[in-house]
Amino acid sequence: MKQILYRIKSLFLLVATAGGISACADDKGNYNYHDIPEVKIEGIASSIQALAYQNLSIPVQLDGLEADEERYEYEWLAIRQFEAEDENDAASEVLATTKEFNDIISLRPGPYKLIYTVKDKHLNVFYQQQANLSVVTTTSEGWVLLCSENGNVRLDMISTVLGEEVHSKDMLADSDIPFKKGPLALIALDPGSLESAPQVDPISPFYLLTEEGTTRLHKDAFEWKEEYLMKYEMGDMSDAKPTHITSAGYFRIMVTPDGIHSSDFGSGTDALWGSQLNYLRNDDNTKEYIQVAPYVGCNVTNSMQMMPIYMLYDLDHKQFVYYPGGRYGALGDPTVGCLNMSDEEAGGNVFTFPIGYNYIYMENSGRKYSESAIMPGFFNNITFTILENNGIYHLYGISLDDFYVTMMEMPAYTKTHYANLSNCTDITQATHFAFSPLNDQMFYAVDGKVYRVNLDTSTPSSEFQFEVPGEITCLKFYLYRNAENARRSYDLIVGSDKGGTDGGELRVYEAVDNLAQITDYKEYHSGFGRIVDIIYKEPITQE
Fold this sequence. Notes:
By secondary structure, this protein is mainly beta. It is 1% helix and 43% strand. The strands form twelve sheets. Strands 1, 5, 8, 9, 11 and 12 form a six-stranded mixed sheet that branches. The chain has a four-stranded antiparallel sheet with strand order 15-14-13-39, with no helix packed on it. It is globular, with a radius of gyration of 30 Å. The model is unreliable at 1-29 (pLDDT under 50).
């Protein structure tokens, strides 16, 4: 707690001169001094959390005041510490002019600097105390679950605000959002900070993907506006219906039924999604558009990339391809399209790129592999892909670097893992997969059972971990962004459904260093719809 004392003294000096000679050599001066009393402000915590639109009480103890209360004025000033959303977001606002604070907080949710000032009107002296004020709502932080109820979108949330657990059910029920059928995914891109590049408008950082279409949602309570519709982000105003959106540094890419589109958010918050990139160049330089799998591999944890590699699976030719994204157009051919991934171009030799295999699954794991050659301190991670051939599941791990390293005669992508998964129990019946960002382990779900696979051999086997009542509908690790949550990225998240209107359940399994046998969960919540996707909404933090 930092206390600031502003003291203003009045000093009057009279200098008389006559005929160029200083007079009154024996003048003892005409100085008026005022003793400044020391006032201590106590009782205000250094960090205060307040619930928006609810009453907040801050008791204050002041030591050193004179008996005459009329000589003092008080002020509680809130200074906004986040980007203004509109003209109604004033830079600062006086909340009260009382000795103690006891009033309704009507500020927009977010971080503020709270400054309490005591003014001695007689001496024109100011005493101040500062605190960090975080204004929150019941939807400021917690688990957000995209659910399906009779095929319709249902957004549920479980949060803990001011020590009280709150379950918010079907938060979009009264929304005018036009897309309510076929929920696919809820994606939270990074609004950016001192350590990371912005990837989305910080006011509306959530993408809701449905079979009918896609829209962004507001950061506070998932409110919806017309301008959040995906078509307003498209260069041609088309009604894009992405099935997947991901990002690498400033650069975003999405998959739609028509193909892939990219966007350079580094050029500003008005960046639009461009034309289709899912084509190969034939020998005669004509474009051959290809159908791609509904996922894009990229280096999701390295925020400092110039030309990130985007990896796709070509469903027509059944092969790995990549798009050299980012600012490649400034250094090469911006219309190059997709390129085949080859053994000669790749680093590592743990497998030979397969051709003719069927796509099953792909995931950007966040698993660190190597330090970036062009940006020390930032790490490339591994994208895992599962393919099927003749009834056998094969796993491939590939680390995707910055394409810029090819100018240093280094490989832009490296083969890191291969595993024949035929020894894994019921692997071909698995409906969900999850790869640990901590180490080389994969988890998969069959009905209500979860198995773990150590990827430290080319022919691994699985180990049964646990079983939950009902059907597992979501299995994942979530990559948190706030530093204080970093360790939680290693927790395995399981969504399941026992049937009925509120049969959805959430379990969070705490990871240990080696993710050894998992037998029990550390967190459990129930009463949701059928869970399709799960994210954790992190609070707005102050710098």
